[in-house]
Amino acid sequence: MESPKYRKNKTTEFFHKLDKIIFVCSSMNYWVDHNGIPGVYMNVYKRIMKVIKAGIVLFVVGELTSFFTQNNLTENQKSDRLMMTLSHTLLYYVTLSLDKETVTEILFTLAVGLKKDFNDPETEILMLKRTKIYACTFVFLSFNSILFYGIKGFTKVLFSDETFITMITAWPDVHDRSPLAGVGRVVVYVLCWLWMARVTTAYLLVLVVTISLSHQYMNLQMYFKSLAGVFEERISQSEKEEKYERALKLGIRLHATTIWCTQQVQRTCGNVFSAHIIINIFVMVQLLSQFKDADRSPGHVSAILATSVTMLINTGFIMWSAGDVTVEAGNLPTAIFMSGWQNCTNMSSYRIRRLVLIAMIQSQKPVIIKSFGFIEISYQSYVSIVKTSYSIFSVLY
Q: Residue ranges per domain, the chain?
């Protein structure tokens, strides 16, 4: 299918570049344009990715079956296995590939459909800057935690004469020192990196979509506030009122489209939010218990701290960006009220006031992205989740 023609802007250029990165990590395209890779190479790469995906499935299955084959583990190793297996198994299902067409439509609507009539340059620059900071930090922290588990395993080999253990799978046995077992452990570690790349693409999409959505509400605020400038133009009062009415109706349509985007984000990304909250609470409880009982070797402590920081900050990014949608949507009624409706006169004033009233009533409905259908994704719920993790730890330990 041919890519639709559209007017390019900074947002579309960013989405196009991001789609290339996502394609490299998951062989999936979420933007409307082709990523520029020749068809022959694309087909070869997709075949390679099928092999990699099969390896990732075996990696996750291997972690699950290790509960039946690995019986000679230390308490720390058992805790690591439980934490990693549960998080890896749940995160394996964190994907937006089943809703690929919907995600593509959301991205295109946010980058093109809603910006062709009005696009505030400062808001767009702010959105891109924030997205890049969040995305780069998220990726760095995600892979940083895996890196520290590799360092932890390597220090055990150097200073404790143990095997290179990062993620515990059904094979090889933790005490097997054969060369083949060593190669197997390296393969498991590489598969963990590939697994993380696959999961990270889903979270990057969620971050990009929610940040773009929150800034679209900011863009709408700027649009409605700009309507007051119509009455400063050097045209007759009737022409001003007609122009304002047309612009107000356009703003209402843009708002309706933005609400549609919000509803689709809730539908497509809800499982990502839910899975991340479950994993965050469980992993934080496990990390606190490990820190309480673990040896104080630099490798082990650094791995625990790296994973804790990663979970806290990355969970914050996911929930803060979604919470900003609620905050910015809540500022929209004020922007509509400041659109200059009071400058209309006579019968035009009556029609405009009705339109403004309808627009404000619609914009005053709370816009909330939820997890599990009832947990509000916001700054307050983020703090509550962190407190809940510590409370569960206090009760259990």
A: 10-396
